[in-house]
Amino acid sequence: MDGVGGQLMLPQHGLVMCLGCCRCDDLECIYNQLKMRKVRNMMEVLERVESSYVPAFKAMLMDVEAALTEAQDIHLHLTPLKRHLEDIETVEFSEVKPFLVPLLHVVCLVWVTSKHYSVPMRIVVLLQEICNLLIQQALVYLSPEDLLKGEMEESLGKVQMVLGILNAFKGAFEERKEKLHTYYEPGQEVREWDFHAMMVFARLDNFLKRLEVVEVRLWS
């Protein structure tokens, strides 16, 4: 069963959520330090003597403000995903299917409402991480080291269950993609997901192919 479980190093969805939060906190800390009274006093002195450091300091402050605004926007819009990801992580994988469409619904809302997350590569990475989470939970459910040792009928049922759920996720993605325009207000510019699905599902498709091989072995 190494073909299914091996060679898959899966990042945790919590990592992105945590990094987004930490980046926001770090930038807030830097911004607050730059706005402290003693820093403003130093800036006033530099301006009076027409120091060459003034333009660089102002540019740095503007960069920090822009980065903080972006981090706050991303954190705000990613936070609602946390509950849906925790649901998928908590329930047994065989019960995951009803959670897939609500999860993708929130992803669509992030795309439409977040100023800084409506970028193809960012949404692709987010969807890739969701795929990674599904693979991770599927492996826990399948227990690859025991799959070929157990009762054939039970093992085959598990494999087919996982195949059905993962393909349902791909189907739900295509459905949400087709209905993405419905998330926009009348008159609002519609931005479709024009990236290739392979960018999202490359690892998941590889996992599905391995599972299909295992399914054949179990049948034989």
Description:
With 220 residues, the chain is mainly α. The protein has nine helices and no strands. It is elongated and about 85 Å long. The two termini are 15 Å apart. The model is unreliable at 5-13 (pLDDT under 50).
Give a quick set of tags describing it.
220 residues, mainly alpha, 9 helices
List the SSEs and their pairings.
Blueprint: H1 2-5, H2 13-34, H3 37-48, H4 53-90, H5 100-113, H6 120-142, H7 144-147, H8 152-178, H9 197-219
Helix pairs in contact: 2-4, 4-5, 5-8, 6-8, 6-9, 8-9
Give a quick summary of the entry.
With 220 residues, the chain is mainly alpha-helical. The chain has helices at residues 2-5, 13-34, 37-48, 53-90, 100-113, 120-142, 144-147, 152-178, 197-219.
Low-confidence stretches: 5-13
Rg is: 23 Å
Per DSSP E runs of 2 or more residues, the count of β-strands stands at 0
Structural class: mainly alpha
Beta strand %: under 5%
End-to-end gap: 15 Å
The major pleated sheet works out as: none
Q: Which shape, going by the Cα principal axes?
A: elongated
Number of H- or I-type helical stretches: 9
Q: Quick check: average pLDDT?
A: 83
Order of helices and strands: HHHHHHHHH
